[in-house]
C-alpha cells in the first residue's frame, strides 16, 4: 500500500490539465518527529526539481485535534480538473535523484493513515494563501436543505478575517463523513476574531436555524500550512 501511494507522488510532469471541476487528493500521514526535517527537505528538493507541476501542493501540520485525529500532517494535491488525476497511482518510479531521495525519506519517516479524494463545492484557490485552516467533517443527510442554508449564509458574510469553503468527500473519508466545511484565516488570532464576528453577527445562529437537522458534526481539527508549491 505504501509503495503504491509513493508511486503516485511522481506523476506530476506527464499530466495536462483541462479547465473543468477542480479535484483534490489529501493524504493524512504521520511523520516521525525525528525525520520531519529530512522529509521536508527532500520534499522541497523534489518539488523544486520538477519542470512541470500540474498540482497546487500543500503540506499541512496538524496543531489541534481530538483523540480521533491520528495523523500529524496532511499532504494535499489540488488539480484544476479530474484530468489531473487520470494517471494517479499508475506512474513508474521517481524519474530523478531528487525523486529517489524523496521516495526514500517517505518510506523511512512517513506512515500513511488515509487517502481522501474530494471536490470543492465552494472554494477560491486564493484561499490557500491563508496559513491556518479549521476543518470540520460533516455528515449531511439533506443536501438540498443544507446547501440552501450554506449558500444563504455565504451571501450574508462580509469579513476580512477569513473565508469559508465547502468540499464534497468523494472517496476515502471516515465512516459517516460526506462533506468538509473549512474555515481559513491568516493565523489563529485572525481565525478567532473571525469566529467571534461570525457568532456575534447572528449569521451562525441563522445558519443553524435554516439548516436544522440536515447535518451533524463528526469531528474537527486545526492545521497550519508549512509548505506550498505551485
The largest sheet has its strands arranged as 1-3-2-8-5-7-6-4
**Topology as H/E string?**
HEHEEHEEHEEHHE
Domain unit count: 2
Query: How many β-strand runs?
Result: 8
CATH fold topology of the largest domain: Alpha-Beta Plaits
Radius of gyration: 18 Å
Q: Specify the number of helices.
A: 6
| Alpha-carbon distance between the two ends | 27 Å
- The CATH class assignment of the largest domain is Alpha Beta
Mean pLDDT: 89
Poorly predicted regions are 1-19
β-strand percent reads 25-35%
Largest sheet: 8 strands, antiparallel, barrel
In short:
This protein has 230 residues and is of the alpha+beta class. The protein has helices at 2-8, 36-49, 97-109, 143-156, 188-200, 203-211, and strands spanning 23-31, 55-65, 73-79, 110-122, 132-140, 163-171, 179-185, 215-229.
Give a structural overview.
The chain has helices at 2-8, 36-49, 97-109, 143-156, 188-200, 203-211, and strands at 23-31, 55-65, 73-79, 110-122, 132-140, 163-171, 179-185, 215-229. The protein is of the alpha+beta class. It folds into 2 domains: 2-119, 2-Layer Sandwich (Alpha-Beta Plaits); 121-222, Alpha-Beta Plaits, CATH 3.30.70. An 8-stranded antiparallel β-barrel has the order 1-3-2-8-5-7-6-4, surrounded by 4 helices. A hairpin with a 7-residue loop joins strand 6 (163-171) and strand 7 (179-185). Helix 2 (36-49) packs antiparallel against helix 3 and helix 4 (143-156) packs antiparallel against helix 6. The radius of gyration is 18 Å and the shape is globular. It starts with a helix and ends with a strand. Residues 1-19 have low confidence and may be disordered.
